[in-house]
Design goal:
Elements: E1 15-24, E2 30-40, H1 49-74, H2 86-103, H3 109-117, H4 123-127
Helix pairs in contact: 1-2
Amino acid sequence: MPGAPKGFSLPYVEQSFRIDRTRQNLGGDLLSSETVYGVTSISTPKASPERLLELNRGHWSIENQSHYVRDVTFAEDNSRIRKGAGARVLSTFRNIVIGLLRLAGFKNIAQGVREMAFGKRRTVLRMIGIL
């Protein structure tokens, strides 16, 4: 539903939108459904409904490629480091490791970490000039 609804007035809001999401298993059975609403400062001429959906999906690719990997592979959400700059520093190191493993061609970061830990491949260490 592009465009702001009647009587809807917020500064800088150019469009509001609704996205209906459903999840099904491979057999076609409905697992869940949800409706999400959003607002954006991007005008309709600059972002059609299709473009807004593309931007929303792009957000999830970042979530899946970075935040999800950091939490699942490195258990970041379970970290007890919360004071000072420690959490930020560790997050930066995790991002560096993920980036280096992707540059080395790993699609599965957990597998890449295991291979580096057990010495099967030293490509990443060569990339940063250690070996």
